[in-house]
Amino acid sequence: MRKIIHIDMDAFYASVEQRDFPEFRGKALAVGGSPDGRGVVATASYEARQYGVRSAMSSRMALQCCPHLLFTRPRFEVYKEVSQHIRSIFRRYTDLIEPLSLDEAYLDVTDDKLGIGSAIDIAKEIKEAIWNELQLTASAGVSVNKFVAKIASDLQKPNGLTFIGPSKVVSFLEALPVHKFFGVGKVTAQKMNQMGIHIGRDLKRFNEFELMQHFGKSGRFYFHMVRGIDDRPVRPNRISKSVGAEDTFSSDLADPALMKIELLRLSEKVFERTEKSNKKGRTVTLKIRFSDFSLITRSKTLLSPIESFVELESAVMDLLDKQNFEDKRVRLLGVTVSNFLSEDGQGPENAQLSLF
C-alpha cells in the first residue's frame, strides 16, 4: 500500500508577493490583471478571495467584487526560483516526485529516504521546512493514492494537513459532494446534479457502463475513483510531446472579447509550464469546442521557437482572429505548444517532459 502526499502551496503567487512586499501583506491582492479592468486574475490572496475574487476572473469583475483590490504583475522567474527551492525540500524525503505545476506536486514516500515511517510526520516536516526556509505556507493531503491525496489537500486550506487513512477512503468518498471530486468540473457537476448525483454515494448507484453512456471515457474514471481505486504511480518523468491547457466554461461564450480574456489566461498558464520545463516549442495550436460539441483545431508553426509570452499570445490571438464563428457559441477553449527543440537546439525532440 502506497503512502502518497499531495503538496499544494497556498495562493502561491500572491503569497510570494505578500512575503516580498510588506505593503501587500494583509491586503486584498490580485496577481495579474490591472486596475483599469483589463486582463484576468492569475491568482488572488486569501484576503481577496473573501470578497469572491478568484483566478481566471476578469479584472473588471474582480473590482466589482472588491473595489479596494490591489493589482501586481506576475514575476514568473521569482516563482520558478521559489518552486525549485521547494522541490529541493521534497528531495530530502523522496526521489519519487511528480510536479503538476510550480505550486503543487505528488510525493510517494512509501520508502522515504530518512526512514521516518509516518507519511503524516513527513508531510508535517515538509510544511515546516517550507515555512522556515521560505516563509510560505502549504497544504498537504496524505492518503493511499494520488486521487484521494489531492482531494484531501484542499479540505483545510490554507496551511492545512488532512489524512485519509485506508479504512476511511470509501466512506470519505461516499460522503463527498461530487463537485469536490478532482476531475469533475462545473459543467459535469451540474449534469450529475440533474441526474440526482450529489455525493459519492449517489454516483456509486451507477455501473461503469451507465456512467460511460452519460460521460464517455470519463465515466470509467468516475466509476473507479468513487470506489477509491487509483493505481497510478507517482511518475517523476512523465513523457509528452506537448504542453497545453484548456477550460470548459459554465456558460457558452459568444463575445470574442471574452474569448480573448480566457485565451490570455490559458496562454499564461501554458507559457509558465514551458518555462518551468525549459522547453521551447515552435507550433501553437488553438482548440475550440462549440456548444453543439463540434470541435476544430487550428495550428501555426513559427520560424523560431517561442521565447516570450508576447510571442505565444500573439500567435494564439492570430489563430482566433482568423476563425469565423458564424454565430456559434464556444463551450471550450484550449492552447497547446508543441514541436519542441532538443536540448542542443538543433532539432525536434522525440519526447518531452510534460508538466501534467
From TrEMBL:
Keyword Transferase: yes
Residues carrying the site annotation Substrate discrimination: Y13
Principal EC category: transferase
Residue ranges constituting the UmuC domain according to the UniProt record: 4-185
GO CC field: cytosol
GO molecular function: damaged DNA binding; DNA-directed DNA polymerase activity; magnesium ion binding
UniProt keywords, alphabetically: Cytoplasm, DNA damage, DNA repair, DNA replication, DNA-binding, DNA-directed DNA polymerase, Magnesium, Metal-binding, Mutator protein, Nucleotidyltransferase, Transferase
Highest taxon of source: Bacteria
Record-listed E.C. numbers: 2.7.7.7
Active site location: E104
InterPro entries per record: DNA/RNA_pol_sf, DNA_pol_Y-fam_lit_finger_sf, DNA_pol_Y-fam_little_finger, DNA_polymerase-Y, DNApol_IV, Rev_trsase/Diguanyl_cyclase, UmuC
Amino-acid positions noted as binding Mg(2+) in the UniProt annotation, renumbered to this chain: D8, D103
Chemical reaction(s) catalysed: DNA(n) + a 2'-deoxyribonucleoside 5'-triphosphate = DNA(n+1) + diphosphate
Cofactor binding note: Binds 2 magnesium ions per subunit.
Subcellular location: Cytoplasm
GO biological-process terms attached to the record: DNA repair; DNA-templated DNA replication; error-prone translesion synthesis; SOS response
Required cofactor(s): Mg(2+)
Principal location: cytoplasm
Complex and partners: Monomer.
NCBIfam families linked: PRK02406.1
Descriptive protein name: DNA polymerase IV
Organism, scientific name: Sphingobacterium humi
Gene for this chain: dinB
